């Protein structure tokens, strides 16, 4: 979490989109070797993100206290600056959506709504189509997120709860075009959440995994996921985000 804060202070930088598993598909025909964030106007998100940062520290969701082997403190407070998606990566998310034109994006967790605002910016660039389904169990953070998301667009459904418990009541099977897994960054959680997500993904869905360099455990988890048989191609975005396209052979 604190790493995101340090990276944000470094400002907007080009993002390398490095192929891992290579196969013909939408990603291979669409992604450039490098993404330049300046091509996407995210000034509306920047203003809301700065205002949210000025709210200061807010209490972490109590569910973290039950996480084993987490490399950071699992109680206390965080600012949105410590947990949010950086602007350069957020601009990439908006660009990705503008090119892919998805009907449905799913993300967990919402936190303060910063990554969600980038997804909604992408949906607006895609011509005002599609919807974001986002999940957050921290009720204090979710209220802040709701107001941020609403400032960008109303094309979202924010569910207050954990994805694992709320997915069945909120999503149809095989309906999700893009999913963003950005909740608790341990392999135990990420593997279980990816498995939970699978029935809701379209056959050619894109899935992003945040903080793949969070710990050695997350690095191993990502290198395993990136080469799974159901994956057509996988890319590492900068140091921190993994992106896969489904559609390979089903295990
Ligand atoms: C790193 S933050 C997300 C940052 C946000 N995506 C952004 O970039 O602005 C992780 C969030 O996931 C939430 N969370 C943890 N477990 C979750 C779960 N199982 N389902 C949904 N959200 C979860 C946490 O409360 C926290 O707000």
Structure description:
- The structure is a single chain.
- By secondary structure, the protein is α/β, with parallel strands linked by helices.
- The chain has a single domain (2-246), classed as Vaccinia Virus protein VP39 (Rossmann fold, 3-Layer(aba) Sandwich).
- It has ten helices and eleven strands.
- It has helices spanning 2-9, 26-30, 43-53, 80-83, 87-100, 114-125, 139-152, 163-170, 187-197, 216-226, and strands at residues 15-19, 34-35, 58-59, 77-78, 104-108, 131-135, 156-159, 176-181, 201-209, 231-237, 241-246.
- Strands 2-1-10-11-9-8-5-6-7 form a nine-stranded mixed sheet, with helices on both faces. Strands 3-4 form a two-stranded antiparallel ribbon.
- α3 packs antiparallel against α7 (139-152).
- The longest helix is centred in the middle third of the chain and has 14 residues, at 87-100.
- It is globular, with a radius of gyration of 17 Å.
- The N and C termini lie far apart (33 Å).
- Bound molecules: S-adenosylmethionine (SAM).
- S-adenosylmethionine binds at residues 61, 63, 83-85, 108-109, 111, 114-115, 135-138, 141, 162-164, 182-184.
């Amino acid at each position: 979490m604190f790493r995101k804060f340090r990276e944000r202070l470094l400002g907007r930088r080009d993002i390398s989109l490095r192929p891992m598993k290579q196969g013909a598909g939408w990603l291979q025909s669409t992604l450039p070797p490098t993404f330049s964030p300046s091509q996407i106007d995210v000034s509306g998100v920047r203003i809301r993100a700065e205002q949210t940062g000025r709210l200061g520290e807010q209490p972490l969701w109590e569910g973290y206290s039950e996480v084993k082997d987490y490399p950071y403190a699992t109680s206390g407070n965080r600012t949105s600056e410590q947990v949010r998606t950086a602007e350069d990566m957020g601009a990439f998310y908006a660009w990705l959506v503008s090119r892919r034109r998805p009907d449905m994006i799913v993300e967990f967790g919402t936190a303060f709504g910063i990554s969600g605002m980038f997804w909604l910016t992408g949906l607006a660039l895609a011509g005002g189509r599609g919807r974001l389904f986002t999940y957050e169990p921290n009720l204090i953070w979710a209220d802040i997120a709701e107001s941020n998301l609403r400032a960008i667009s109303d094309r979202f459904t924010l569910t207050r709860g954990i994805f694992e418990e709320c997915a069945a009541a909120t999503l149809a099977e095989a309906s999700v075009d893009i999913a963003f897994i950005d909740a608790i960054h341990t392999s135990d959680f990420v593997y279980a959440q990816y498995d939970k997500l699978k029935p809701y993904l379209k056959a050619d869905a894109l899935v992003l995994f945040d903080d793949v360099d969070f710990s050695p455990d997350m690095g191993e988890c990502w290198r395993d996921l990136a080469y799974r048989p159901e994956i057509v191609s996988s890319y590492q975005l900068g140091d921190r985000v993994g992106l896969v396209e489904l559609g390979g052979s089903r295990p």
